[in-house]
Amino acid sequence: MTVEYSDASTDMMLSAPRQAVLLAGGAAFGSTDRMDAQTFWDRVSRPSTKHGCWDWQGRLSDRGYGVVSTAAGDRRAHRVAFEMRRGPIPEGMVLDHLCRNRRCVNPDHLEPVTPGTNVLRGVGSSALHARQTECIHGHPLKALASGKTPGRRYCQTCANARRARSRAALAAKLGSGK
After folding, report:
1. Are residues 20 and 51 located together in one domain of the fold?
2. 159 lies in which domain range?
3. How many domains, in total, are found in the chain?
4. Together in a domain, 103 and 142
5. Which among 1, 34, 83, 149 counts the fewest CB atoms within 10 Å?
6. Are 77 and 158 in the same domain?
7. In a structure prediction context, what are the per-residue pLDDT tens digits for the chain, which is 178 residues long?
8. Given 96, 111, 131, which residue is the final one in a domain?
């Protein structure tokens, strides 16, 4: 028999067995380890900001993501919330926090994307360099010619200036007889 659970604040209906599987990460709960959907949502503050984020009030990872402890191990709270509301996360995909708030578990703020897309949408050095269109001197960056390192870009204006300085230094060295 399936017992339906309704959370009026999120307009969701889930069967009790599915909730247990999601929160357990696919493993069975022990009687003391069980966290049902109501306990999960009780740990969420909604809305916490004008942007509509639902902040996780439970334990946080060292990187600031909400953590749910289960018999199968720790799971990220935003992943559990997404799976309860929207279903499984597609294989090979990760969840991108569109709001950039790592504590947020609002499924409307989460989008399944490839790991590469998630990195490029972020604020790390890889993302910043990928979005860069000019060198530090304001010249446009160009892609390297085919056959060379794919994905690398360079400034042709600065490269030409470096070559000219190098040639001038070599000519001066050879011209002085050293």
Report:
1. yes
2. 133-178
3. 2
4. no
5. 1
6. no
7. 233 334 444 444 444 444 554 454 443 333 334 567 888 999 998 775 678 999 999 999 999 999 998 777 899 999 999 999 999 999 999 999 999 999 999 999 999 999 989 988 888 888 888 888 888 999 998 877 655 666 678 888 998 999 999 999 999 988 865 5
8. 131
Do residues 51 and 82 both lie within one domain?
yes
Among residues 10, 79, 66, 2, the alpha carbon closest in space to that of 38 is found at 10
Assess whether 125 and 159 both reside in one domain. Answer: no
Domain boundary among 131, 151, 170: 131
Residues in the chain, total:
178
Cβ neighbours around 33 below 10 Å, total: 14
